[in-house]
UniProtKB/TrEMBL annotation:
PANTHER family: HEPATOCELLULAR CARCINOMA-ASSOCIATED ANTIGEN (PTHR14614), PROTEIN-LYSINE N-METHYLTRANSFERASE EEF2KMT (PTHR14614:SF130). InterPro entries: Methyltransf_16 (IPR019410), SAM-dependent_MTases_sf (IPR029063). It holds the Pfam family Methyltransf_16. It comes from the Eukaryota. It comes from Acrobeloides nanus. This is Uncharacterized protein. GO terms for cellular component: protein-containing complex.
Length: 258
């Protein structure tokens, strides 16, 4: 597997290519090189989306499911899920018009003819039923838990979509501020009748290259030269003892015991 990034153009746009030798396929992501463009961070390709894409590729089975991605940004995680799984449908969403334009381009690049993947605008503060045509079985999202101001809308959106007993969300989150993350998990989710469990910790591999998924059962899986994480730089690290914690992955469901 090889991950190529093209050189920035004059308007600071580049393309990141993720090549899977075994699948004999490639995912191309058009992105902005600046962290913030047009007042949003959603136009660049963040590391958490690569981590989530890798997790979905390695550990998930979404066969015949309807998938919804929240805060898709460049769309890497949602595009990867659609490439690697035989989904019934896939809907990638964001709330920013600039992001949506680029997201549509990325979907068109990777799925030039397929009609089972769509792009929709989704405002977390507006009733979802007027925005999304299907009720998803699976929700995914990367790096959504970063600002307390979006917590209420995000949690309400999760609650609205997780209506069926078998539906659930998988969220991957870079570890930046533990207090912010804990507030979301232990306070905001509870207010909406949601519960969570951590399903994996993502560590920098002891070699300093690649990552390691540590599952909650204690099993670990090394990803040294994988499809999505092989060439990402791993900054914003949280060191715990001799471990370098990069991200955590959570499963969220309705709390049926309430």
């Amino acid at each position: 597997m090889v991950d190529f990034s093209s050189s920035p153009s004059i308007d600071e746009i580049s393309h990141r290519c993720f090549i899977d030798v075994e699948l004999k396929d490639v995912i191309v992501i058009r992105k902005k090189d600046a962290i913030v463009t047009n007042g949003t961070t959603g136009l660049t390709c963040w590391r958490a989306s690569a981590i989530l894409a890798e997790y979905i590729r390695l550990f998930c089975d979404f066969t015949d499911k309807n998938l919804l991605e929240l805060g898709s940004g460049c769309g890497l995680s949602g595009i990867a899920a659609t490439k690697y799984h035989n989904l019934q449908s896939s809907c990638l969403t964001d709330g920013n018009d600039y992001v949506l334009d680029q997201l549509k381009e990325n979907v068109d690049i990777n799925f030039p003819q397929e009609n089972y993947i769509s792009v929709r605008k989704l405002d977390w503060n507006i009733n979802y039923k007027n925005q999304i045509p299907i009720l998803p079985d699976i929700i995914i999202g990367a790096d959504l838990i970063y600002d307390v101001e979006v917590f209420t809308g995000l949690c309400q959106t999760l609650k609205n979509f997780l209506e069926t007993p078998n539906s659930y969300a998988i969220l991957a989150q870079n570890i930046r501020n533990r207090d912010t993350l804990d507030s979301f998990l232990n306070k905001e989710l509870t207010k909406q009748g949601l519960k969570y469990k951590r399903i994996a910790r993502v560590l920098l591999h002891k070699s300093g290259h690649g990552i390691c998924f540590e599952k909650e059962n204690g099993n670990t899986v090394d990803c040294l030269n994988e499809v999505f994480c092989s060439n990402y730089s791993f900054d914003y690290k949280s060191k715990i003892g001799n471990e370098v914690l990069l991200a955590e992955i959570f499963e969220i469901r309705m709390n049926i015991n309430i």
